[in-house]
TrEMBL record:
The keyword Signal applies. InterPro entries: DUF4185. This is DUF4185 domain-containing protein. Transmembrane segments: none annotated. Coiled coil: none annotated. The keyword Membrane does not apply. Residues 1-24 form the signal peptide. CDD domains: Sialidase_non-viral. The lineage of its organism: Bacteria, Bacillati, Actinomycetota, Actinomycetes, Micrococcales. Residues 50-353 form the DUF4185 domain. Keywords: Signal.
């Protein structure tokens, strides 16, 4: 789904009718926020230019959400929302009738080293080897346009997947659901059975239409929101072995746990949507990531009913327009938090990273101003939070022009050194990690990405030549006695017309 920018709760997808064209509801203009983005991009997980090659392997060219859980047997299962195949052109969700539209798909990973990305090694597939739809949907507008996963969990060897049956998409940030339900699988996600357990939504105000699961001990806490992105959050609890038994659920009524769902009182005020909750043994707190307004935010609490801390911005829509989701990777540990983030443009999913301390406070944020080149349309002199550039450089702002979002920066010339740079304040005698995503023209034969002093002396850099698909480069260095460094990426253009593009630059303390 997307914040006020994508209107589906779990997958921007198909909108008006299936009639001969599966299309998603268009997002409204992004609302700028002043918040910065502490999180950094690790990898594009799905779609074109993604190292996983989900397009070539399983015809997953565009998708969203990326809801992850530990299957209990050494894997992470990841459920995606509305998914489109080869004929998708984007940006945004939707594809022609031959677009291989699936309302949901499931991929599997055993990759435990997330610092360099997350490798998917398997998909639940149809006989042709395509990632298959795992939960059926009618795809009839006004009846059931799609079925979107909202949360997953394993209990013993059984996998459970919470979902919402979407009747129809409405204006941006709004949609109508028929009910929330639970499907289960006893073969690690290959086949699924839709249970009779449901939360019906006759008046459009049921508080558990989008659910998020978190287990602590033998209890599963079920957090819920209404359909759409404008409601509060409530919580229930149920013994893990009785997840399908609605009679065993108890709903927080503001002072105690009640058998009566109608007595449920919000534990967090609106707007709440696309929640992901985990019990974090490092901080000994519940962590909740959610879309709230335009941004993905983080709250913490020592009890599921709260009180919950004030919101900390995780990712700003100003840096990542039309972002949504925000789902924890279950193998995050020791304060290293990995999560998925979706963007309407280009309607795919990214692996993100941030750090927290033992109080659940975000630390070691990205120090780069305007890391994804979305906050400006022109380049400056590299000081005071601006990017600097020589002539024949600029910001591409075509829709979905960037590695993420709409913008990317470029240099293009045929004679001499051309680079993009920014002066960044640092702490002396501290190790830092610089990352960024680059690609070049085929004839590029000499480029550099790194950190230097403000007077131009190289501290550390990575060398590259021709870079085809978007590629992540990493440079680690010590700041020495400096309190400022200059980050840069550029190419020597002495071998004909050469260009370089750069996006999503980050500077954080090295682990």
């Amino acid at each position: 789904m997307k914040p006020l920018t994508k209107i589906t709760a779990g997958a921007a997808i198909a909108s008006l009718a299936v009639v001969a064209f599966a299309t998603a509801a268009a997002p409204p203009p992004a609302v700028a926020t002043t918040a910065t983005t502490p999180a950094t991009v690790v990898e594009k997980l799905t779609g074109p230019d993604a190292p996983n090659n989900t397009w070539g392997r399983w015809d997953v060219k565009s998708t969203d959400l990326g809801i992850m859980w530990d299957d209990g047997s050494g894997h992470v299962l990841t459920a995606f929302g509305d998914t489109f195949g080869n004929s998708w052109t984007g940006p945004g969700g939707g594809a022609p009738p031959n677009g291989n539209w699936r309302s949901n798909v499931l991929l599997r990973s055993s990759d435990a080293d997330l610092a360099d990305g997350m490798l998917f090694d398997h998909a639940a597939q149809d006989p042709q080897g395509i990632a298959k739809q795992i939960i059926p949907s009618k795809k009839i507008n006004g009846d059931e346009i799609t079925v979107i996963p909202t949360s997953g969990i394993s209990v013993g060897s059984r996998q459970y997947l919470g979902f919402m049956s979407v009747r129809q998409w409405g204006p941006p940030g709004m949609w109508d659901t028929n009910h929330a339900g639970i499907a289960y699988s006893d073969d690690d996600g290959e086949t699924w059975t839709v249970s009779d357990t449901r939360w019906e939504n006759p008046d459009g105000h049921d508080p558990f239409q989008m659910q998020a699961y978190v287990q602590k001990g033998g209890t599963i806490y079920v957090f819920g929101t209404q359909n759409g992105r404008n409601g509060p959050a409530s919580v229930a609890k149920v013994p893990a072995q009785k997840l399908l038994d609605k009679g065993s659920y108890r709903y927080w009524d503001g002072s105690s746990w009640s058998k009566d769902e109608s007595a449920a009182k919000p534990v967090l005020d609106a707007p709440m949507s696309e929640m992901s909750v985990r019990w974090d043994s490092y901080s000994k707190r519940f962590l909740m990531m959610t879309l709230s307004g335009e941004d993905i935010i983080l709250r913490t609490a020592t009890s599921p009913e709260g009180p919950w801390t004030p919101a900390q911005t995780v990712a700003s829509s100003t840096d990542y327009p039309a972002l949504y989701g925000g789902y924890f990777h279950p193998w995050s540990k020791d304060g290293e938090i990995y999560f998925t983030m979706s963007q309407w443009n280009p309607y795919n999913v990214y692996l993100m990273h941030l750090r927290i301390d033992r109080n659940g406070t975000i630390i070691d944020p990205n120090l780069v101003a305007d890391p994804s080149f979305e906050r400006a349309t022109t380049l400056g002199d590299g000081t005071n939070g601006a990017w600097g550039a020589k002539p024949n450089s600029g910001i591409d702002d075509a829709p979905a022009a960037g590695f993420t979002g709409d913008h990317r920066v470029f240099v293009r010339y045929d004679d001499g050194w051309r680079d993009i740079w920014q002066d960044v304040a640092v702490q002396p005698h501290t190790r830092y990690q610089l990352t960024g995503f680059l690609r070049t023209s085929v004839n590029s034969d000499n480029g550099y990405f790194g950190a230097r002093t403000v007077d131009g002396t190289v501290i550390a850099e990575a060398h590259f030549v021709s870079v085809g698909a978007w590629t992540r480069f990493t440079v680690t260095f010590d700041s020495g006695d400096r309190d400022q460094v200059q980050l840069y990426g550029g190419v020597w253009t002495n071998s004909g017309d050469i260009w370089m593009q750069m996006d999503d630059v980050a500077l954080v303390r090295a682990p």
